[in-house]
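RECORD TYPE: protein structure
NAME: Cytochrome P450 CYP2 subfamily
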Amino acid sequence: MLLKLGSKPALVVSSAEIAKKIMKTHDLSFAGRPVLIAQKKIFYDMTDLLNLPYGEKWRKLRSIFMQQLLSSTRVKSFNSIMEDETGLLVEKIEACFMSSSPVNLTDMFMSLSNDLISRAALGKKHSETEHGKKFLELLNEAVGLFYNFTLGEFVPWLGWINRLNGYNAALDKCEEKTDEIMDAIIEDHLNSGGDDKSKECFMDILLDMYKSNTPGFSIDLITLKGVILDVFAGGTETSAKTLGWVMTELMRHPEVMKKLQYEVREIMQGKYNITHDDLQKMHYLKAVIKETFRYHPPLTMNFHSSREYVNLLGYDIEPETMVLINTWAIGRDPTYWPEPEKFMPERFLNSSVDFRGFDFQLLPFGAGRRICPGLEFAASAIEHTVAKLMQKFDWALPNGMKGEELDVMEKPGVTTGRKNPLIVVVTKCYF
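PREDICTED:
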């Protein structure tokens, strides 16, 4: 659907076939990102990887990002970190069990996601530091501002409304707090190094590039801050919210949970540590997570922008047209998904459909040049966490609530999580 949002042309795509043409056939032409007020403010004038205009700098920065932090090989090397952090999560849940207290999984998943990412990227975790706690609060605030379409965004002469309703002031405050926290994270890293005592983490590599001014490619302090912000903003919210939806659907469908627990416990056979090889055997686990990605995609909309004139299905698309790939609608299209409103992991058991950008009916991470670089890390972290929770505990809702009574109200936004915290009760599973 081609339309005008004020003075800006926009293309809304709710079909897998058209999404494929945009992110594969004409991928280079649509490899841009829309220029939006919040992104310019908070992401250092869009000098970060996620928002940087497509070009040589973007290609080199992405290459470093993938090689040093998010390649499949690097993600496998983080297995010990994932085991450590999910082990700490288990301890927190066990403490709730011992005190007969309910478990707030929403808060726990947010801290877990932040700690996994900070240990992988920075060599230490920040959720327990003062600026780390502030950053978790700031992420929630910032996500509410991202892609918050305002009249001033699309009708420039109505920009005064953004000043009147406090939107500009909120952006300015968020920008200031974000920069303070990025400075604190960098200073803290320079002063103390990583908890893991690793020789070189992603932050070390970026700092070396910043200091050395290597011929051919170097980064300035603003780009360094933007990339570190990408790591946290791009991964913490989406992974935490996806974990929340996985557990929500398992609570709503106890027969699915029982089947998943059986698979995990049969494969683990009383072992404590979950390895990469163990996860590869858990086919039903992967089906549950794929179905969650379909039913509750981390990003309801995937944003692109045209870089040049493109003829798409007979329509002339202007340069700088905002393209919104409606991943939520595509994931519930009956053309591709029988009974799309049902949560049925079994649909993936005998299917080759995957979420890595080759099957356009399932696009939780996008596709093409702009596919989410954190895909492998997020998928591995989610698999590891869910497997550990199914291995260690039996789960129920508080006060005898039945699964069908659990609310599934969504908090509006581009990253759509639960509106209300997911509160559960647990029983420890003894082997």
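COMMENT: The chain has one domain: 2-405.
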